[in-house]
Amino acid sequence: MIWIVICAVIAADLISKHMIAASGITDIVLIPGFFHITYAENTGMAWSLLSGQTGLLALISAVAIGVMLRYLLVNKPDKLTSFALALMIGGAAGNLYDRLFLGYVRDFLNFYIFGYDFPVFNIADAALCIGVFLLVIASFTEDRKHG
């Protein structure tokens, strides 16, 4: 099951990025004032932090993927923790692919939330954020079991 989640996230991320990049879309409004498809190439991470540090970010991603995979295989965590880590691994791998083969990460999901133009992101980023959120929930539920 975990491998399916990892592969599904990677596939959805890379296919969506390819489709948007190949379409030539730079900005299209889908829901005025709320949601656009805006193609962007980001050499950094969230909010363009560490821009131009592609090698460093690729190394960090590869190490993080390795640590999470090892934890999954060695510790055999509960289902929620496993699912959270699978989302995070898939997301990190999708962006790692872009960094290694393109030198930048392709972003395209652009939301305007209460007038704030949220940074453009992609499916890998969403999977990472959801995975982190679920991991926090899993840690709280685990603490309650043992506390």
Give your account of this protein's structure.
The chain has 147 residues and is an alpha+beta fold. It has one domain (2-138). 63% of the residues lie in helices and 16% in strands. The chain is built from 4 helices and 4 strands, in the order H-E-E-H-H-E-E-H. Strand 1 (27-31) and strand 2 form a beta hairpin.
Q: What would you report as the Rg, rounded to the nearest angstrom?
A: 16 Å
> What is the 3D shape?
globular
Compute the number of helices.
4
Helix-and-strand structural type? alpha+beta
Would you identify the regions where 5 or more consecutive residues have pLDDT less than 50? none
| Largest sheet report | 4 strands, antiparallel
- How many domain modules? 1
Query: Strand order, biggest sheet?
Result: 1-2-3-4
Secondary structure: number of strands: 4
Order of helices and strands: HEEHHEEH
Q: What helical percentage do the residues reach?
A: 55-70%
Residue-averaged pLDDT: 94
Strand content: 15-25%
